[in-house]
Amino acid sequence: FLTIIDEEADRLAQLIDNILESAKLQSQSVQLTMQPLRLDALIRDAVIRVRTRHNNLNVELHLESVPPIQGDNVRLTQVLDNLFSNAVKYAAGSKIAVRVKQEDNSLLVTFSDQGPGIPKAYLPYVFERFYRVPGDRSSTGSGLGLYICNQIITAHRGKIWVESELDQGTTFYIQLPIKSTL
User: Fold this and answer.
1) Are residues 20 and 30 in contact, defined by beta-carbon separation less than 8 angstroms?
2) How far is CA 91 from CA 1, 46, 113, 126, 163, in A?
3) Directed axis angle between helix 39-53 and helix 73-90, to 10°?
4) What separation in angstroms does the CA of 171 have from each of 35, 52, 122, 162?
5) Distance CA 103, CA 39 (A)
6) Nearest C-alpha neighbor of 144 from the set 89, 84, 87, 82
7) Residues 1-36: pLDDT tens digits?
8) Dihedral of CA 80/85/88/91: which sign?
């Protein structure tokens, strides 16, 4: 019982943190600590962290040699951790493919799984605050994770979007400028 109480307390603390984080992001009161960073190194670090929690996770990396960007290391790590967490939760056992490449004056990150996919009717809403795709998927989650990701990427003057096919998987795209005007 103590283990259950401990796990639920952790989940509640995470929910409170997410609600506070989403309120800060919505009010645009979050200050980004911008610095030059290597997005490919950030992704490698995120993979190492997620593999320590999920030993059998199959992650395939395709990281081109790309220039550094101006970004907030902590906030971008939060985005990557959230995308991995969602993939583990909603596409359990699926291979996750992460790609980074330069396209003109931006970097494009694709984050793909081979899970059950998201019905097209729900795709326009996945980045909304408190939105959860209806159905018999995971019962946990607050519907704040992708909202927070969207707010962080937008604060970096980037874009995030999703494409999905039922029974084929889901791909999240993140486009970040190489030269930031923040």
Assistant:
1) no
2) 29, 18, 7, 16, 15
3) 40
4) 27, 23, 14, 6
5) 14
6) 82
7) 788 887 778 777 776 776 767 666 666 666 788 999
8) negative
